[in-house]
Amino acid sequence: MHQLPIEQQILLIAEIVALAILCLRMWMAGLYRVYVYFFGYLVLELLQALIPVLVPLDGRLYVDSYVASQALITAFYALVVSELYSNVLRDLPGIAGTARRYIKGALVLAIGIAFLPLSLEKTRATLMGYLIFYEWTVMLTLVGFVLLVSAFLVYYPVPLGRNVIVYLVGYVVWFLTAATTAVIQNHNLGDVWNRQLSSIAMAVSLVCFVFWCMALSREGESKRLVVGHQWNPADEQKLRAQLDAINASLLRAREK
To answer: Which is nearest to 3 in space by CA: 83, 70, 62?
Structure first.
């Protein structure tokens, strides 16, 4: 860990502590059984955060460990987004099923595109190069779905469990920050900018981990809130009726 900049060393230690507390809280509250993929993602993040502490940064083992862990984490990005859709649309199974099919189809296409360079390139690329292209393709595909579910909840008055809202808000902030940072850093802006961007991304991650630590709880599973269309509550019943009609139509189409 001695090769990391001092501010990133501090942020890394804080992340490890926050992740360990968050995983423990979710385990003790039984939330790991409700949000299986989210919990798995957090465990992978914790294990990856420990790599710079346990493995020298200038060795081959660090590169291989990072690539393997990041490939798994990238796969969990998709699983977490799918899990978010399932929880947000829990009372709308027709819409939820359609959304999951679109997510799966888009990811299959994205992963196929990500591995296309393997068959086209004439010179051998680095393992890190493969990882970056794979991560980029999957993240950019998922950004659209993350923005869609966010816009859906802002517009439609869907009652949700408090934990689901906390889960979604934290993940949207974290994921969009990570995706933006990945895109900007790939433009080779130099070591100074990359260092600053990495520190910002780590700080945002830490804030999200602390937010989840403080806001996720066993009691949050039973509390129901409505966040959508707050600027015009009078339309709530009308919009809900529209959603129910769309959901029923999609269910009938699936049964045919």
So the answer is: 62
Q: What is the CA radius of gyration of the chain?
A: 20
The dihedral through the CA atoms of 189, 195, 201, 203 has a sign that is: negative
Q: What angle do CA 163, 169, 171 make, to 5 degrees?
A: 100
Task: Say which CATH number the domain at 33 has.
Answer: 1.20.1070
pLDDT tens for residues 221-243? 888 887 776 667 777 788 888 88
Phi, psi of 160, deg, nearest 5: -135, 155
- Model pLDDT for residues 103-134, shown as the tens digit of each residue: 888 888 877 776 665 554 444 456 676 777 77
Amino acid 88 reads V
Write the Ramachandran bin of 243: left for phi over 0, alpha for psi from -120 to 50, otherwise beta: alpha
**Per-residue model confidence as pLDDT tens digits over 182-216:** 777 666 666 677 788 889 999 999 999 999 999 99
- Range(s) of the domain holding residue 114: 6-255
* Helix, strand, coil content of the chain in percent (nearest 5): 80, 0, 20
**Side chain identity, residue 68:** A
Looking at the structure of the chain, the number of domains it has is 1
Do the domain assignments include residue 1?
no
